[in-house]
Design a protein that fits this description.
Elements (H helix, E strand, L loop, with lengths): L1 E5 L9 E4 L9 E10 L2 H8 L12 E2 L4 E8 L11 E4 L12 E5 L3 E3 L6 H5 L2 H14 L7 E4 L5 H12 L3 E6 L4 H6 L4 E4 L5 H4 L3 E6 L3 H6 L4 E9 L6 H6 L4 H20 L3 E4 L6 H12 L7 E6 L3 H9 L6 E5 L2
Parallel strand pairs: 9-10, 9-12, 10-11, 12-13, 13-14, 15-16
Antiparallel strand pairs: 1-2, 1-4, 3-5, 3-7, 3-16, 5-6, 6-8
Helix pairs in contact: 3-4
């Protein structure tokens, strides 16, 4: 089958379009004919080798972390899906590979596609939807009336997280650029800080939760907007010891994570704030709950642009410019 492949880790390198073996279908797997995929910053970080210590992939590697498509075959022990089902998923991190014609995934990672979305729209949801869910519901336990700051509100995670936080009854602030103010307001943001005009740390205060997806400076400044007992949750690092232990990393890597996060953890403690790093995990059951929200009109995908499968490298270059509103999608079939 045709696929876009990482042969060796190199920053900014092009993916190779080539032939790869058909996926093996295990007893609990569904084999999906891919109709659409979408791009995430995670794809570029994997390609660049930023995660090679904690995600030791064997190269060559098919890239891609989001999929929407049709089930063509199921393993002998699969009970939840059948051939012909339209599904979407974020494959488990050890079985990624959605920039391809087909993929096999464990049935627990897969959910039925929202009936009111196209394949391209559905492919824009899994990774960012699950990230927002696991930050706001699992980790932050966000409640009605609480205040949450979601950085980069016009990005893939931000556009979904704003809508989910509003559904949960929170008061939502976000940061974005001037040209995206109208977009984030349309998604439900109550307070919008145009970072080109204002410093969020000087205009926001008393927040319960911050979802950070940006760099070190933004991460540290976010401490100033949280009240004592607040939660600073970062999806862009630095990873902490708890993450290393959850991921089953060895003692040496646990110490590396401890050192990487020691600065922000110390500053957070001084402010009476809890810091944690979250690396989202595949979860078909949570994705099914997201499907229900989408079908009821609570949440909608935001797709910036769609590229044909053959233009996957051009799509990667476009995403790297950092101007996409929502998700960048690849139409595979």
């Amino acid at each position: 089958m045709k696929a876009f492949i990482v042969d060796r880790y190199k920053r900014g390198s092009a993916l190779r379009l080539g032939e790869m073996p058909e996926p093996d279908v295990r007893d609990h797997d569904v084999l999906v004919e891919i109709h659409a995929s979408s791009l995430n910053q995670l794809d570029a970080k994997i390609r660049d080798g930023e995660f090679k210590l904690i995600l030791p992939y064997r190269l060559p590697l098919i890239l891609g972390n989001d999929v929407a498509g049709v089930v063509v075959r199921v393993g002998s022990k699969v009970r939840g899906f059948k051939p012909g089902d339209e599904v979407y998923a974020r494959p488990s991190q050890d079985r990624i590979g959605t920039f391809a014609e087909r993929i096999a995934m464990h049935e627990d990672d897969v959910a039925l596609k929202p009936a009111n979305l196209s394949m391209e729209e559905a492919a824009a949801i899994p990774l960012v939807g699950l990230t927002a869910w696991q930050v706001l519901i699992d980790r932050a336990q966000l409640k009605k009336g609480q205040k949450v700051l979601i950085h980069a509100g016009s990005g893939g995670v931000g556009t979904f997280a704003i809508q989910l936080a509003k559904h949960l009854g929170a008061m939502v602030a976000t940061t974005t650029s001037t040209e995206n103010v109208a977009l984030v307001k349309s998604l439900g943001a109550d307070v919008v800080v145009d970072y080109k005009q204002e410093d969020f740390a000087k205009v926001l205060s008393g927040y319960d939760v911050v979802l950070n997806s940006l760099g070190k400076d933004t991460l540290e400044k976010s401490l100033a907007v949280l009240k004592p007992g607040g939660k600073l949750i970062s999806i862009s690092g630095p990873p902490d010891v708890a993450f290393a232990k959850e991921g089953g990393l060895n003692w040496m890597l646990q110490q590396v994570m401890r050192l990487l996060s020691v600065g922000i953890r110390k500053k957070a403690r001084q402010h009476g704030i809890g810091y944690s790093f979250l690396f989202m995990r595949a979860n078909g059951a949570q994705l099914s709950q997201i499907t229900a929200l989408i079908e009821s009109g609570v949440v909608r995908p935001v797709v910036d642009r769609s590229f044909p499968f053959g233009a996957t490298n051009e799509a990667m270059d476009y995403l790297a410019k950092g101007r996409a509103k929502g998700k960048v999608v690849i139409k595979v079939r």
